[in-house]
Amino acid sequence: MASGPGDDALKPEVILATIKQSGAKRTPARAVAVAQALMVGASKRAAAAHAGIDDNTLHRWIHDDPAFRALVEQAEGAAEMTYVSAVYRAASTDPKTAMWWLERRRPKEYGRRDRMDISYETQQLARSIAEEQGLDETELLLEAQAIVESARDRNRRADGA
């Protein structure tokens, strides 16, 4: 992982010194476990599970303790910089990686248009069918989405078999 300014604040001994311990669950070891999970890119839910706490507990700690909140933000920032740096390095030799980043970073400017057109066509078709059949357009779209997701699941299982 790339190091940068402020990385010392993410060392376990610094975390232990800055985290207030209150209640039986909030231990320095759990704070370190949360920070370490976040530093490698885990979600808050996964970090909470890794530390042996409920994600609601983690969110309460973040809300209640400014030092812990700062630690969480710094750990998430460190993870993001690690992965942004990796994409940056890969994009210098692979145009597909550069396009992937642009599509996600600036979807209005660089996002794939075919997906939006299909979505628009589907919505127009659903509106037309709903009017013809006297159905609710939203319910029809939700049912269509469920059918598509079911088909995707079947295809994934077939591919994995």
Provide structural commentary.
The protein has 2 domains: 7-107; 112-160, no CATH class. It is 76% helix and 0% strand. The protein has 9 helices and no strands. The protein has helices at 12-18, 28-39, 44-51, 55-64, 66-91, 95-105, 107-110, 113-133, 137-160. It is extended, with a radius of gyration of 23 Å.
List the helices and strands and how they pair.
Blueprint: H1 12-18, H2 28-39, H3 44-51, H4 55-64, H5 66-91, H6 95-105, H7 107-110, H8 113-133, H9 137-160
Helix pairs in contact: 1-2, 2-3, 2-5, 3-4, 4-5, 5-6
The helix/strand order is: HHHHHHHHH
Mean pLDDT: 83
Provide a count of the helices.
9
Largest sheet: none
Q: Report the β-strand fraction as a percent range.
A: under 5%
- Stretches where pLDDT is under 50 for at least 5 consecutive residues are none
Offer a concise description of the structure.
The chain has 161 residues and is mainly alpha-helical.
What labels would you give this structure?
mainly alpha; single chain; 76% helix; 2 domains; 161 residues
